[in-house]
Amino acid sequence: MAGIQRPGYYDRQHRQSPALIRARRPYLLKNALLGAGITAFAFGIYAYTLTVVGQDEFEDVRVPDTPVARGEKK
After folding, report:
1. Across the strands, what pairs with 16?
2. pLDDT tens digits, residue range 11-52?
3. Can you say where in the cell this protein is located (predicted)?
4. What does the angle CA 12 – CA 32 – CA 18 come to, to the nearest 5 degrees?
5. Torsion of CA 43, 45, 50, 52, to 10 degrees
6. CA distance linking residue 40 with residue 47, whole number of Å
7. Which of the 8 DSSP states describes residue 56?
8. How far apart are CA 16 and CA 20, in angstroms?
9. Cα–Cα distance between 47 and 44 in angstroms, integer?
10. DSSP result, 6-72
11. 16 and 9 in contact (C-beta within 8 Å)?
12. C-alpha to C-alpha distance for 53 and 63, rounded to whole angstroms
């Protein structure tokens, strides 16, 4: 029913109530540190991958001297 308000953790402007803020406070620092750790791990893998791929000389890839025209078969 539209007229009945149930008590909840958010007010009419969809802001967190003081009770929700108090309930989440013990986990805030741990969650932030875990998120920062996961983000640093992902960026570390990304940087490592770019470094390793950037060092490849592609010596094993055979490149033709002249480009082959489309429709032309060897």
Report:
1. 10
2. 888 899 888 899 999 999 999 999 999 999 999 999 999 999
3. Mitochondrion membrane
4. 30
5. 150
6. 10
7. -
8. 6
9. 5
10. PP-SB-TTSPBPHHHHHHHHHHHHHHHHHHHHHHHHHHHHHHHHHHHHHT---TTS---SSPPPTT-
11. yes
12. 19
